[in-house]
Amino acid sequence: MAYRLTMVGTGYLGATTSACMAELGFEVLSLDVDAEKISRLQAGDLPIYEPGLEEILRRNLANGRLRFTTSYEEAAAFGDVHFLCLGTPQKPGEYAADVSYLESAIESLAPYLNRECLIVGKSTVPVGTAQHLADKLARLAPIGSGAELAWNPEFLREGFAVKDTLHPDRIVLGVASDRAEKIMREVYASMLEAGTPMVITDYPTAELVKVAANAFLATKISFINAMAEVCEAAHADVKQLSLALSFDDRIGGKFLNPGLGFGGGCLPKDIRAFMARAGELGADQALTFLREVDAINMRRRARMVDLARELAGGSFQGCTVTVLGAAFKPNSDDIRDSPALDVAVKISQQGGQVTVYDPVAQENARRAHPELSYGASALEAAQGAHVVLLLTEWQEFIDLDPEQLGAAVATRKIVDGRNALDSETWRAAGWHYRALGRP
Ligand SMILES: NC(=O)c1ccc[n+]([C@@H]2O[C@H](COP(=O)([O-])OP(=O)(O)OC[C@H]3O[C@@H](n4cnc5c(N)ncnc54)[C@H](O)[C@@H]3O)[C@@H](O)[C@H]2O)c1
User: Where, in this chain's numbering, is substrate bound (predicted)?
Assistant: First the structure.
């Protein structure tokens, strides 16, 4: 049977999953409470930057497999499988995740469910959420046990979201029945045929896999950044240290690049929510190390500001600082908890005249931080700068010509916050080059 799918929530995750599942041949109806977002998506205008996605969106709008709505009633009548792609941000003033968007989506959808269906949660949630939502669903759905819940955490990476969705490295599925497993095996049949490993488990294990994966990745990044701190103290070079570690295949080189650390809409809030949930479960000691992981990560931002101030001559007063990058990572326009913007704002608060440039996250940054200045290009943003900071490693920044940039700035001083530039080349062009964790 060709199941009809709905996506509830069309943000980074939902928009990507919508277009990609339609691309795989499913009929998809996607829902959001944000009417403006829905009309843009329906018009083929992707509200986010994600390489390759807009093309897929447009192709599947044109062939009629993909549609958008704001009506829960319509979604309930249409779908055999409803994917939940709601946000789970950090609660203000707390470490815990806010799962109220998921709750409200179930409360809106369930009363219309009078045909058999499967609800599949994809959001990253505190362990225990799936069971709680399953209970709520059972209370509210007129079809009763005909509407069931499964948990299928998502591992896609912004910037590689299309590839990760069409060719995931694994599928994790928490189910409460054989029926749910059978439906999901059909939904993911093409991926399973291609050899994608699938782990079938219970709700809590599926929920935990996602946060455990993010905790591990965050730990790896903070590990190398802790080594950067030691290298700075010992006048050693963390980039060479990282390279040497990477040849050990038990360690590997991925997520081992020292720099300004992690940010974005996932890692920071996920490790904090994980700690909060472990605390509620009485297992807080198991995760106290994540506090340190978080602290190391935040210290990199403070160190970056210190290094920039040092190059500015001890104070930002009267100093023009160019910040290259606003997105939390390259190939994304996502500025949620962006280390680059965090540093830019701190320098501006300390009296620096900050001009930011980002190839795609510029407008998001301007909306969030109208107090900063913005340049139309890297060269324009660098006009008259006393210090340049490379904070998001976009390829176009790595490709910058030190001579050309040198002609724009007032003084040739650069801090490479991502260890992305070739220090020799920049020094040879007369730049005072500094990087985190390096002499
Ligand atoms: N962004 C990623 O790369 C990524 C990767 C893996 C997992 N995740 C997880 O996926 C989830 C979604 O993340 P995101 O980045 O897509 O978030 P997002 O904020 O971009 O998208 C959430 C969407 O849900 C909509 N929404 C809110 N309330 C709603 C409601 N009641 N009914 C319908 N729609 C509603 C919002 O308007 C928004 O469009 C989070 O739990 C996140 O941790 C995200």
Answer: 155-158, 210, 255-259, 263, 329
How does the average pLDDT of the chain come out, rounded? 98
Q: Could you tell me the maximum CA-CA distance found in the chain, to the nearest angstrom? A: 72
What is the mean pLDDT of the segment spanning 83-111? 98
Rounded Cα distance between 421 and 430, Å, is 14
For residue 1, the model assigns a pLDDT of 63
Active site residues: 266
Q: What is the pLDDT of residue 439?
A: 86
Q: Cβ(84) to ligand 1 under 6 A? A: no
Same fold, 4-201 and 202-439: yes
Q: Could you tell me the distance, in angstroms and rounded to a whole number, from the CA of residue 117 to the centre of ligand 1? A: 22
- The CATH number assigned to the domain with range 4-201 reads 3.40.50.720
Q: Which CATH number fits domain 202-439: 3.30.70.3040, 3.30.70.1350, 3.40.50.300, 3.40.50.720?
A: 3.40.50.720
| pTM exceeds 0.85 | yes
- Closest ligand 1 atom to residue 34 Cα is 37
Per-residue pLDDT, 258: 97
Q: Which of 32, 91, 103, 274 to mutate to test the pocket of ligand 1 (most atoms within 8 A of CB)?
A: 32
